[in-house]
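>> Question from a student workshop board

For tomorrow's exercise we were told to take the sequence and the ligand below, predict the bound structure, and bring the output to class. My setup keeps failing. Could a helper post the expected result so I can at least see what it should look like? The ligand is nicotinamide-adenine-dinucleotide.
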Amino acid sequence: MFDLSGKSALVTAAGQGIGFASAVALARAGARVFATDINEAAFAALKQADARIEPFRLDVLSDADVSAARERTGAVDILFNCAGIVHAGAILDCPPEDLAFALQLNVTAAYRTIRAYLPGMLEKGGGSIINMASVASSVKAVPNRFAYSASKAAVIGLTKSVATDYVGRGIRCNAICPGTVQSPSLDERLRAQGDYEAAKAAFIARQPIGRIGKPEEIAALVVYLASDEAAYTTGQAHVIDGGWTM
Ligand code: NAD
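>> Workshop helper replied:
Here is what the output should look like for this input. Compare the format with yours to find the bug.
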């Protein structure tokens, strides 16, 4: 398996779902992991999952929090921007404040952490930045995901821009585009539709592989992209979706 010994990683939104699974997988691959979230209740479970995980509170919407995080961790080798939110609805269901919030959390937060951490990676001579996008983006049209798709498409653009500007200086920047993945917020979205079982069955029905993805399956891609074995990939939107877009 991939060996991340000697590397350090910062993960945002590591409190649950894909971020949690990724923090654990990065640590098990040998990295020193700074696992951050606004939900401090998750920290005990992170520490219990792997002693190499150092959790602390980081609100990715806050310049002050990101500066303090950078002070605390020093330069890192791996930055996984996992924070994001799903806004449900078409454009006519999306008032300006909802679009602004989706862009803040899904796009500007990654801009903020990259601006904080990229200079340290450049000083070290390299680093791997991984940004959480989605197949609901420029990859695939998904109904009732206006703000989500627009913002996740922007994540892919941001990723390609950073990748091309720093490819000659040891920096790789990739995006991950999952299909539907089991997580607490997915369960909330399914419950919000009224009939949880029916909503889940509909989500499964659109997956050619016949099931929803597991956070650990996305985490495995995060570990690969973080590793030196991925040295030849940058600027890509890596689709991992159970065949939804094949
Ligand atoms: P989730 O939505 O269940 O959990 C999100 C986490 O983000 C929570 O721990 C929450 O406390 C944290 N968070 C919220 N606001 C924050 C802030 N301001 N600063 C720091 N942390 C904050 O997890 P998930 O469903 O695994 O989603 C994680 C990422 O993966 C998101 O970017 C999401 O868009 C993306 N994604 C998820 C799916 C899916 O089906 N679950 C599919 C494609 C992409």
